[in-house]
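Section 3.1 - Work completed
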Amino acid sequence: MVYCSHCDDDCPYVKDPDNGFTCCGMCGKVIDQDMYTDEPTFVKDSSGQSRLSGHIIGIAKGGSLSRERTEEKGRDEIWQIVHGLHVSGGDDIICTAHNFYKLALDNNFTRGRRTTHVAASCLYIACRRSEKPYLLIDFSDYLHISVYVLGAIFLQLCQVLLLGEHPIVQKLVDPSLFIHRFTERLLGKRDNAVSDTALRIVASMKRDWMQTGRKPSGLCGAALYIAALSHGHMYTKADISAVVHVCEATLFKRLIEFENTDSGSLTVCMCSS
């Protein structure tokens, strides 16, 4: 099954080995195109020297012990991250991420990249597919690497797996998914009253189109800051910034934007009603 943007669904696909096309089995849209030839071709580089063009693709063989070890290592890395970040879903989320990892292996995506980084990218795709409340920066913080490095690997992996037009990548991340997790991280415990107020504020932001073009963490931070103060929790903007991973300037900007909306003039009781 592959995702077809024309059908807007995961559809069966048809491969034409003679022309190198991969087409949607429902509407016929060309999903991918790979041209293979058994004759070597040459191109000239910038220095004028001729070099071999394209890539050499080996003949597929049965599963080897090395492949099994590589798959097992990837699964172990995914398991470590799942338990380190307390990702819910158990074996289901691990299996989903591991399936993406095996697809990455099939496309030689792991070559030249650290197993941990590829495993984290696969798990992030699985989390977005299952609407888990995790941001890419959560994974980069856990692995102690730059979020831009991990983000580049994630985008490259999506391109290799033909997910560029899939809702997993294109769909906006719903800020509401993160409210309960951020509230618990801020207060050190679950507080449904604060979470519910923050969720209603986020809903108001959506109605006023504040979600468009903005990262969910900034909106969550602004909503959580207002909700916490309204319930008597005196937290500073710096406290909120540390929880949602945005700078104070961004948080302040989101608060000003919300203040300028119609919902910004409502009281907490009016928002909750």
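Second construct:
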Amino acid sequence: MLNVVKFNGVKEAAVIHAEGLRKRYGPAEALRGVDLDVPRGSVCGLLGPNGAGKTTLVRILTTLLRPDGGSARVAGCDVVRDADRLRYRIGLAGQHAAVDELLTGRGNLELFGRLRHLPRRTARSRAGELLERFGLAEAADRPAGTYSGGMRRRLDLAASLVVEPPVLFLDEPTTGLDPRSRLALWDLLRELADEGTTLLLTTQYLDEADRLADRIAVLDAGRVVASGSPAALKARVGGDRLYVAFREAADLTRGAEVIRGTLPGSPGAGPGAGPGTGPGANPSAASLAGSFAGSGNGAGVRAAGDMEIDPGERRLAVPVPDGAASLVAVASALNAAGIAVEDLGLRRPTLDEVFLRLTGADAA
């Protein structure tokens, strides 16, 4: 059965399809009915706290573990009934580089090619291509044990691509790499996706998922609690927020009042502004002043309606409906009121905020 999912507004075949996957380890349920669709040629980031079920899901999808319930197909193969055939259609790069440190880089790749039943000449040719592509040609005849961490990771990834699999699974591919090596590996992975390889990666770096993934699935307690593009998931936790840092602490209360009177829908915002009454309405000047009462330096962040106020840092944050237009209006109003600011800017929700909102845990 062909499963179809929308990708970039176009219907694409789902090269990875999981439905109702379940797995139990003794009394503990690692997976509790996981559904997942990954379109061909896309990058899917799998996020979740420790114990969420990420590794269990990847092990099932790569035929290393049998599910207790549900079904999954990868590259047209059932992960249980067609496991032997599927293993020739996927690549897997684990969290730690699985290379023979005594063999050279070239020797490692030729060995992997022979293990995947490539003819000797084909394995040698493919090894040369991959060494060149992954920037390892100059070190090709050195023992892998002399490679840096970034070089070993690239060699491990190259080994997973010896047979040019249509689907590649990556378990925390950049763990332990320095920033330069991470960026280089990101570029390689994006190139693979652009060429049509489907990637599913787990990562503890949310900026990595934000940079690489077309779609993200968030697992928590064995279930997919949210999925979609990074932009769509960020939209779930709210739009832009305006951040203002004031030069003088004494201006914080008055600045908050000016901002409240400037933003659309706030009291005193001008013609057409909402009355600001009812549950969740914007606070009055009096209630804003109350938010600062007794707040000296070092005071924590306080809430005044939907405005977050940090007296110790002389700054506040408030959601804004129309981004740049609100920024311009607030800057003009503060200037007209003679209120000096040290910093003023917009910030969109981060994937970290999405993750914490959905799981209430740290990424891992």
